[in-house]
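On clarity, I found the account of how folds are encoded harder to follow than it need be. Since the whole study asks how a given chain folds, the encoding of that fold should be made plain. For the editor and my fellow referees, an illustration may be useful. An entry of this sort, consisting of the sequence and the corresponding backbone structure tokens, reads as follows:

:::
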Amino acid sequence: MNTGITDIYYCDECNREVKGYHRYCHNCGEYLGFDGTKINLFNNSSLQSAFIFFIVYLFVCLVVQTTNWFDSYDRLIWVEIFLAAFTLYHVFKNFQAIKPLLKFHNFNIVRVAGCISLAAIGSFIINIVVTKLNFSFFGTDTSYYEHYSIYSMPALIMVYSIALYPAIFEELAFRGVLYNYLDTFLDQRVVVIVTGFTFGIMHLSFISLFWLVPFGILVGVMRKRFGTIWYGVIFHFTFNLIAVLFDLYRHGHLWNQ
């Protein structure tokens, strides 16, 4: 295994770039030997940063989920502000690595239309299934709207809080910051899967894991394939927007704003 630039390694068989700690090429399967850089994962600053970043997100979500104090949006908004600031701090801390993701590489209007269509269809199907599962197993028919109904323009606040904010900041957090930390010591295919699972776990909804994990993996594939978070942002926003419209329509509030 040859090295040209420090810490950059290439497979002798297919000349694809590999990580220094890899023992086999993920492209052709060639054995790389032991001349790569050995990395102690338990003394790895990127792993530690990824762990702390996810634990903070998970802890905040647990606090929100297990207490009633954040049921009103005028309190929940402070959680959103904190997580946005926490995410942006890590973005600026790793700006040189994350900067390329903020550019809309490989922009293609057909691809964008495909993202929007797939997200809309998927969201519609998932919302129907989840609604039926919640009613069948738990006898509940929950509505997002009831948490926003006391405010003026509740539908607009729902679009911001449920669709726009998560699309931007969750993609920045999981396909930007966390993905970047993990990418320094894991193969990208593994990173896509790990960030997909952590994304699903962060939502703290066991019954929704069946679609949250594939959702996270899919937008991770978009980030890996196109080198930008913006296809994921568009997909995420559309998916959540349809969920908002579905909720408003189902409870008779869509046309009564």
